[in-house]
Design the sequence.
């Protein structure tokens, strides 16, 4: 796990998500489940299986992850999809998207008119969400249902950590920001 702000990328993301006061669940591989359990109750960490009972590799994409999380929390009023590699999304951003999805089937954070995460889906999309598969996640739902962008002053909605270079750049930005706050 990659270190960031005294934690890890996932740990920082989970801490920010917990700042919303909403229930937070992590859907992850067994490789990162221990980190998720450091921040969440074990019952809120869903480990995606890598193989079926016969030992064959199982497909695992964003759609599968969303479906697993939604299925495990079927009584929720909605779901915020907040990728674990987005440590700079602010808790207030998550709350703004959660509030908007009370009025729209889908709401998403946007910064300077660019769509980012989290993306919120209200409960009326439960059956659609629990049947997602593949790597595209919920993109087809965004094209089929009314979605409302929520313009927010949070550039973190566009920043994910996909590479070590992303992490180096984000660490430098965090240090610069911390220096300005002093």
Sequence:
């Amino acid at each position: 796990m990659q270190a960031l702000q005294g934690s890890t990328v996932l740990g920082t993301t989970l801490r920010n998500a917990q700042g919303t006061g909403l229930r937070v669940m992590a859907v992850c591989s067994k490789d990162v489940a221990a980190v998720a359990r450091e921040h969440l109750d074990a019952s809120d960490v869903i480990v995606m299986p890598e193989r079926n009972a016969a030992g064959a590799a199982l497909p695992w994409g964003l759609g599968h992850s969303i479906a697993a999380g939604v299925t495990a929390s079927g009584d929720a009023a909605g779901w915020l999809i907040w990728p674990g590699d987005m440590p700079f999304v602010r808790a207030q951003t998550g709350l703004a998207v959660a509030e908007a999805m009370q009025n729209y089937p889908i709401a998403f954070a946007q910064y300077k008119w660019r769509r980012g995460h989290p993306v919120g889906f209200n409960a009326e999309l439960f059956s659609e969400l629990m049947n997602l598969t593949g790597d595209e996640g919920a993109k087809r739902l965004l094209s089929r249902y009314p979605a409302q962008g929520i313009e927010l002053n949070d550039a973190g909605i566009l920043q994910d950590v996909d590479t070590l270079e992303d992490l180096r750049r984000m660490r430098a930005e965090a240090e610069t920001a911390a220096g300005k706050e002093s």
